[in-house]
């Protein structure tokens, strides 16, 4: 089959690789009909090289049809399914608590990390990912989300990651109808976090440097601003001088905008060019994130408010303004999205003919899998208005 493989920092290629096979009775194999490019994939592309091996199959936002079903998979050949990005058993202590990203059955204990993820480095189990024509799905008796045949793929595809991640970001923001929320960054997660908060009755502000991303959010009733102190002042003034009740950081470890972010970028990139025996411990113990978005969130949120982190962070030595966090009594919530916890809330909105979350206004590029290298570069450089790329693996 054809699959997108990691080959080095800022380098992916589409290669012929062996077809996946059933390995456990609760496995399934799906033929991938749509698979998306995620902002988290760019962390592999740019930062997390020390934990990658050339040839790793990437991608964690797939859906498709079951072509082989293990005897204990609870699936049938022909079922149409969306595959959550994490691999969870559904039975352990953490799964029962709705914390599927901490699944005890699939935890990557040798790395000290949580549940295995599709296509996401040694840190998360080095499981072959979903930017491919076929995908082996472990724990298929629990993970796959069965969906109907009436709607096109793009209405369901984002149940794999983007929509639950955005929904959790809003839920973790601890806000109610009538409250105010600011979203830092209007990439895929930020777009939907802003729309979900708006749908749930909040006043939503967003800060984003790219004009096309601001324009997309504005179409859905979001009050958009460019980065800068003037925008922070304007949002404070619009919230009685206090700042919003919550700020969602949808940017993560590769933010731009201040001296610390420049230092963090230097540290991140330096690690890419060191031998693995040095680079992995350096990333695990001494790495720093680029924190411009997080710093701005902490500055902007009102006293006693919440900063909800949905952007991925990975630095173990990132400096935080603890005095400010303590003095302002800021709540900080975070974590990988627990997909199955939120699906029942989101699925009715996905299937609603009125499209209340504007899913039809989200995908900017539909491409064959063969164009993955160009798509990664375009997405990373924010070219051609690229906000969300969906690949069709059957056009590889």
Automatic annotation (TrEMBL):
It comes from the Bacteria. Residues 24-143 form the Alcohol dehydrogenase-like N-terminal domain. Its cofactor is Zn(2+). Keywords: Metal-binding, Oxidoreductase, Zinc. Residues 188-259 form the Alcohol dehydrogenase-like C-terminal domain. Gene3D superfamilies: Medium-chain alcohol dehydrogenases, catalytic domain, NAD(P)-binding Rossmann-like Domain. Pfam families: ADH_N (PF08240), ADH_zinc_N (PF00107). Belongs to the zinc-containing alcohol dehydrogenase family. PANTHER family: DEHYDROGENASE, ZINC-CONTAINING, PUTATIVE (AFU_ORTHOLOGUE AFUA_2G02810)-RELATED, ZINC-TYPE ALCOHOL DEHYDROGENASE-LIKE. This is Zinc-dependent alcohol dehydrogenase. The lineage of its organism: Bacteria, Bacillati, Actinomycetota, Actinomycetes, Micrococcales.
């Amino acid at each position: 089959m054809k699959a997108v493989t990691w080959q080095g920092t800022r380098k992916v290629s589409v290669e012929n690789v062996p077809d996946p096979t059933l390995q456990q009775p609760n496995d399934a194999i799906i033929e991938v009909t749509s698979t998306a490019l995620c902002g988290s994939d760019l962390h592999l592309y740019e930062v997390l090289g020390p934990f990658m091996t050339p040839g790793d199959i990437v991608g964690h936002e797939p859906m498709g049809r079951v072509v082989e079903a293990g005897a204990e998979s609870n699936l049938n050949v022909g079922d149409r399914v969306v595959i959550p990005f994490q691999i969870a058993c559904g039975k352990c202590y953490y799964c029962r608590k709705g914390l599927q990203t901490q699944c005890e059955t699939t935890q990557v204990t040798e790395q000290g990390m949580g549940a295995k993820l599709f296509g996401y480095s040694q840190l998360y189990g080095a499981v072959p990912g979903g930017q491919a024509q076929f995908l082996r799905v472990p724990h298929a008796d629990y993970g796959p989300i069965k969906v109907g045949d009436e709607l096109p793929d793009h209405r369901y595809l984002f149940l794999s990651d983007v929509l639950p991640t955005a929904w959790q970001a809003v839920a973790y923001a601890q806000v109610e109808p009538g409250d105010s929320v600011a979203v830092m960054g209007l990439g895929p997660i930020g777009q939907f976090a802003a729309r979900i908060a708006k749908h749930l009755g909040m006043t939503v502000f967003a800060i984003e440097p790219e004009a096309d991303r601001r324009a997309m959010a504005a179409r859905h009733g979001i009050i958009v601003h460019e980065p800068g102190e003037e925008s922070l002042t304007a949002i404070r003034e619009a919230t009685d001088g206090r700042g919003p009740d919550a700020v969602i950081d949808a940017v993560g470890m590769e933010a731009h905008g201040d001296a610390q972010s420049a230092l963090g970028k230097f540290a991140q990139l330096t690690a890419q060019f060191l031998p693995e025996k040095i680079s992995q411990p350096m990333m695990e113990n001494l790495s720093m994130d680029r924190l411009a978005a997080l710093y701005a969130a902490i500055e902007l949120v009102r006293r006693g408010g919440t900063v909800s982190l949905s952007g991925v962070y990975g630095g173990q030595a990132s400096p935080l303004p603890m005095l400010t966090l303590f003095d302002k009594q800021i709540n900080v919530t975070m974590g990988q999205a627990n997909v199955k916890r939120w699906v029942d809330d989101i699925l009715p909105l996905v299937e609603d003919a009125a499209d209340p979350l504007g899913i039809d206004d989200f995908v900017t590029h539909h491409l064959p899998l063969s164009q993955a290298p160009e798509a990664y570069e375009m997405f990373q450089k924010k070219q051609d208005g690229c906000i969300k790329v969906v690949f069709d693996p059957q056009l590889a």
